[in-house]
Amino acid sequence: MTCDILIDWHPIMIARIIKNAVGGRHQRVVARILGITQQYVSMLMSGERALSPEVAARLERIGLDGRHLYAMQEQRRVEIQWRYETGAMERPKMFHM
To answer: Do residues 52 and 41 touch, judged by C-beta distance below 8 A?
Structure first.
């Protein structure tokens, strides 16, 4: 089984990990626990928004290793940049930070 960081750590995959961690809790409750807005939680859980270092650190409040998720997200970003610069892929559509 091979690992492709572009697929395995896509924002949608990170969103799934977060969704599994929060279970059935409402986004409003998750936002309160993490100290962020409900809109940010919604964007994060839909894969529209990347993790910030601050929010990644707060994910421990819901039982996740946010530092690991953030590191993998950043490794994916660097891999995309490297593949683009070496001509291995076309210019990527980046997500919001």
So the answer is: no
